[in-house]
């Protein structure tokens, strides 16, 4: 089957549990689809796949701007819930034991304590100041701009990278 790419004439409506219903311009309806990002880190608003209950791809959205505004709103709500990434606002403490880092941080979702197995692989700092952290349980966290952290937090971060 050829890959289906959506356009503004195709409509997405909300279903239960962050699933969506797709109505194609030809009237074909696909119900209970899961939106997922093909590139969840580098292209958040591009290449969104819609999977059926068996995990089979039904359609792809090249860019969110390719579909109508209401569909974008529904897709973003579903994707944001699935890809919940807490934002670190303060690093409270860090400790290393047997090569594993333990961070205690304050996030927009509350205080979190997590382990980082490999600082070289699991802490990524971009030129813009964004920091992406992956913990030992494969959860992700971000720091929007480490230059804006308080001095204590910056010092702990610099010590760990």
Report on the structure:
The protein has 161 residues and is α+β, with helices and mostly antiparallel strands. It has 2 domains: 11-82, no CATH class; 88-160, no CATH class. It contains 3 helices and 11 strands. The strands form 3 sheets. The chain has a 5-stranded antiparallel sheet, covered by helices on one side. Strands 6-7-8 form a 3-stranded antiparallel sheet. The protein is elongated. The mean pLDDT is 93.
List keywords for this structure.
161 residues, alpha+beta, 5-stranded antiparallel β-sheet, 3-stranded antiparallel β-sheet, 41% strand
Largest sheet, spatial ordering of strands: 1-2-3-4-5
β-sheet strand percentage: 35-45%
Q: How many discrete structural domains? A: 2
Low-pLDDT stretches are none
Main sheet overview: 5 strands, antiparallel
Radius of gyration: 19 Å
Count of DSSP H/I helices: 3
Beginning-to-end CA distance, first to last residue: 46 Å
The ordered H/E elements are EEEEEHEEEHEEEH
What structural class do the secondary elements suggest? alpha+beta
**pLDDT averaged over residues:** 93
Q: State the helicity in percent bands.
A: 10-25%
Q: Could you say which overall geometry the principal axes of the C-alpha atoms support?
A: elongated
Report the strand count: 11
């Amino acid at each position: 089957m050829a890959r289906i790419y959506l356009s503004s004439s195709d409509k997405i409506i909300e279903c239960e549990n962050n699933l969506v219903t797709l109505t194609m311009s030809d009237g074909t309806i696909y119900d209970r689809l899961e939106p997922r990002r093909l590139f969840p880190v580098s292209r958040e608003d591009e290449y969104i796949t819609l999977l059926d209950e068996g995990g089979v791809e039904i359609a792809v959205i090249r860019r969110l701007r390719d579909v109508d505004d209401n569909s974008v709103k529904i897709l973003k709500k579903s994707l944001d819930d699935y890809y919940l990434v807490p934002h670190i606002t303060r690093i409270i403490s860090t400790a290393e034991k047997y090569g594993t880092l333990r961070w205690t941080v304050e996030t927009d979702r509350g205080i979190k304590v997590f382990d980082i197995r490999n600082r070289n692989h699991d802490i990524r700092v971009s030129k813009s100041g964004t920091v992406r952290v992956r913990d030992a349980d494969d959860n992700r966290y971000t720091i929007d701009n480490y230059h804006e952290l308080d001095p204590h937090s910056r010092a702990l971060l610099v010590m760990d990278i």
